[in-house]
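Collaborator request, handled under Task 6.
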Amino acid sequence: TVTSIDYTPEITYGETISVQGNAMFEDVSYEFYDKTTGKWTTIAPTTPGTYKVRVLSTSIFGNTRYGKEKEIVIKPKNLILEIASDEVVYGEKPEIIETGLINDDYIESVSFIYNDYSSTNPLVKVDKNNTHILTKDNKNITYGYSINPVETNIKILPRDLEITFSDKVGIYDSFPLTSEDYAISAGTLAENDEIVMSEYQANTPAGV
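Structure tokens returned to the collaborator:
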């Protein structure tokens, strides 16, 4: 019969569950219950969630008895994400510094929130709702972390871009000769940006 159980009711992701059961003149083992699977297992959980643990005592005759079920909570681990860059070219993403990742977990993707998209010196922070963290086996573990972004001022530098219009030749007829054909000859547009022409190169007199 199980006489006692000592355990830690609350731990943080990355820590190991500690359980110690005792039974009079019997061997003990442990089982854990996961609500998501609805099953008992001898494998201790490691990811955040609420679980149950129970002690099993086995007599020399092979009889098994169960102790009272106890609840164990694994909390998400704090993760601080800071902006490492003092300045960044328009359209590029700032570098970040992370404090708190464990077990070879890594940040797969991250987005940023700017307080003013028209400013050249905005406040920027990581968008915790659009940050995705994976394990070394490429499984989602974002829920294993409580993400705490740090807001920082950065300088937005202009993005180099050169546009060249195509040459156009025509017979003089007093109307402006326009060229609407152009190409990006140097640099690139930022993602999701596009060129919209409001004025075109024009020439009315004969000649170049």
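The cover message to the collaborator said: "Residues 27 and 158 are 71 Å apart (CA to CA). The chain has a mean pLDDT of 85. Please let us know whether this matches your experimental observations."
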